Amino acid sequence: xxxxxxxxxxxxxxxxxxxxxxxxxxxxxxxxxxxxxxxxxxxxxxxxxxxxxxxxxxxxxxxxxxxxxxxxxxxxxxxxxxxxxxxxxxxxxxxxxxxxxxxxxxxxxxxxxxxxxxxxxxxxxxxxxxxxxxxxxxxxxxxxxxxxxxxxxxxxxxxxxxxxxxxxxxxxxxxxxxxxxxxxxxxxxxxxxxxxxxxxxxxxxxxxxxxxxxxxxxxxxxxxxxxxxxxxxxxxxxxxxxxxxxxxxxxx
Amino acid sequence: xxxxxxxxxxxxxxxxxxxxxxxxxxxxxxxxxxxxxxxxxxxxxxxxxxxxxxxxxxxxxxxxxxxxxxxxxxxxxxxxxxxxxxxxxxxxxxxxxxxxxxxxxxxxxxxxxxxxxxxxxxxxxxxxxxxxxxxxxxxxxxxxxxxxxxxxxxxxxxxxxxxxxxxxxxxxxxxxxxxxxxxxxxxxxxxxxxxxxxxxxxxxxxxxxxxxxxxxxxxxxxxxxxxxxxxxxxxxxxxxxxxxxxxxxxxx
DNA sequence: CGGCGCATTGAGGGCGGTCAATTGGTGTGG
DNA sequence: CCACACCAATTGACCGCCCTCAATGCGCCG
Lengths: 252, 252
Known about the structure:
Two copies of one chain form a homodimer.
Chain A (H helix, E strand, L loop, with lengths): L1 H7 L7 H10 L2 E5 L4 E3 L7 E7 L2 E6 L5 E7 L9 H4 L5 E4 L3 E7 H10 L1 H27 L2 H18 L3 E2 L2 E3 L4 H8 L3 H13 L3 E4 L2 E4 L2 H8 L13 H4 L11
Antiparallel strand pairs in A: 1-7, 2-6, 3-7, 4-5, 4-6, 8-9, 9-11, 10-11
Helix pairs in contact in A: 6-8, 6-9, 7-8
Chain A binds a DNA duplex through helix 8.
């Protein structure tokens, strides 16, 4: 929960009063197994979910059976804050690993919008960052090669996970299958596999044993045409403050 | 301005007090010519823009020169409400036709979040609908054929324009080039042209003289695997209430 | 009339898709 | 400890959707 609060008003700390309000708004925590549906598609819901532990995605399955992942969510992310105003979403949230999820009833969110304008803006902002990532993915899917897309995804995960302290040196655990990566980047499984091999051969990054290791951060970013601004992490990612070191906490 | 207000709390009417607040928050209106940059990329801004007349898009140009359009905006849309919390966006807003734009200083939006929680939620909601469209486009770009993508785009525009009264029978003006359509759907210009021809030959829809005419709404939706829910128009689009008729106003 | 922007058409090629088989790691039960 | 099942990763062969290059048509406007 704490790491979630750190990120919400990022890079500023969230006032204590608002922290408490948010913590109180979690009515319960729920556990899911890998593959479980956290939130079903096309079903009205009256709560939103924060990922406290584990990885999940939002996905849509077409009539042909093909799947498109529209977003990945890591610990600290709301996976369906968008449902607060929209109630029903056309895609479902699915656990990619075992997940611990905090449930926030929409009624509590509504109260927040009435008495906590600043916190409201921070929640709003977090959905706008989601949208910014969607737009970036549109650029990747529409105009970038398979190699660039995968490289971009690996860059994105690196920064997102770094903020919540889930990187170690230049590598991080990415507990998803190549099939998941394919369905996110609009590629076939076979081609994703070959592209991973290419990234490895070029000395850019390796994806193996569900772990990404970045060999050459500079060249990986170039290959991806990666510009981190769309993630709106400020320059406060630990990466930017002291490369390699992960000793100092970002915000208390 | 009025048609904008109708849509914001859609399908409910926006309370008069909030309507006035919004109207007052427009500090000025500005005119742009086709091709003008309405809002530059990577530049901090302190206002957001409502399209009062004309069509615009958000777009990103890569180093290779290729362009990806991430969104189209029609009259009544905020084209960069997302900039309210994020301040800087990596893509620019560009006028596709002559545009009349209402400028809303962020300071006014901030005041709204403090004293008008309901209106705040409606503005938040409109950005969430943007995000919902982005996710749908991700599905299109990632997993659908060129034919499906174009068909989907034509369906989407039909409903979005219908809500603001910009359709006539089963056709509407879409004042963009095939090149714009290509850059939105991640296709080459040549292939977009051929796919338009295919849509016409199949009797689904025609795009000519910057006008889309839908010949077979049912089959067009099938080809696109189009489900309108993601637009969150409720069932209040005039299309759904009385097909073909456009006499009764949706909301006063 | 010439220039310009957009639409259209043809030819050829490559990126990435599909089908299919194999390998390897892991967990389970005999 | 091995047999087996199962899943993910890997590799090969082939193919097609869509891209690129290039030329032509067409309407508009100065």
